[in-house]
Design a protein that fits this description.
The complex is a heterodimer.
Chain A lengths: L3 E4 L2 E4 L5 E7 L7 E6 L6 E5 L3 E2 L7 E6 L2 E6 L8 E7 L6 E2 L3 E5 L1
Chain B lengths: L2 E5 L2 E3 L5 E8 L7 E7 L5 E7 L6 E3 L7 E6 L4 E6 L8 E8 L6 E2 L3 E5 L2
Parallel strand pairs in B: 2-11
Antiparallel strand pairs in B: 1-3, 3-8, 4-5, 4-9, 5-6, 7-8, 9-10, 9-11
The chains are: A mainly beta, B mainly beta.
Chain lengths: 107, 117
């Protein structure tokens, strides 16, 4: 199976600053990569799909990039409501696999 | 608005069985594949199963293959997860999601399954 590795495990960022989250795949997933946001006590929510396309209703401060094995989720200006764990997920082959998550804290 | 409502969770003894249901609304259910994803307490997300729009194809993660069975009833717009031979490490919140081999575009709120004696 394709192993997804996220870094860092925890990211502490001041409001208004940029947050950069990384996701690496153990083999190429092409552009078949999604990002999810899970706020405390809530179900996950789709943020990005196909590596760089924002899901419906997602603010423009979220952007995704990358292809193959290296991907990045950027929050251009962190807001307090962005406190959450962020997961990447590949869907290029079965089984679908998630990364271990990056917890974004507000400094 | 897409709505997914899971039910059927609860406390079960090791070796026991449980059937989860996910009632869907707000979209053409019969045109979409569906998934189950779980999250153990304090842990990350684990995809466990998916079913095609017609139900003709099913997929499983290694941790549940042979013990869990996914199915659907398009007339009831409901997807099911039959869980047998449950173990302590199956304890988790189980989420139903709309997707199936792609990004999971909508998620339910989850149902908690606790396997303990």
């Amino acid at each position: 199976e394709i192993v997804m590795t996220q870094s860092p495990a925890t990211l502490s960022v001041s409001p208004g600053e940029r947050a950069t989250l990384s996701c690496r795949a153990s083999q190429s997933v092409s552009g078949n990569l999604a990002w999810y946001q899970q706020k405390p006590g809530q179900a996950p929510r789709l943020l990005m799909y196909d590596a760089f396309i924002r899901a419906t209703g997602i603010p423009g401060r979220f952007s995704g990039s990358g292809s193959g094995t290296e991907f990045t989720l950027t929050i251009s200006s962190l807001q307090s409501e962005d406190l959450a764990v962020y997961y990447c997920q590949q869907y290029t082959e079965w089984p679908l696999t998630f990364g271990g998550g990056t917890k974004v804290e507000i400094k | 608005e897409v709505q997914l409502l899971e039910s059927g969770g609860g406390l079960v003894q090791p070796g026991g069985s449980l059937r989860l249901s996910c009632a869907a609304s707000g979209f053409t259910f019969s045109s979409h594949a569906m998934d189950w994803v779980r999250q153990a307490p304090g842990r990350g997300l684990e995809w466990i199963s998916a079913i095609s729009d017609t139900g003709g194809k099913t997929y499983y993660g290694d941790s549940v293959r042979g013990r869990f069975t996914i199915s659907r009833d398009n007339s009831k717009t409901t997807v099911y997860l039959q869980m047998n031979s449950l173990r302590a490490d199956d304890t988790a919140v189980y989420y139903c999601a709309k997707g199936g081999g792609a990004a999971l575009t909508s998620w339910g709120q989850g149902t908690l399954v606790t396997v303990s004696s």
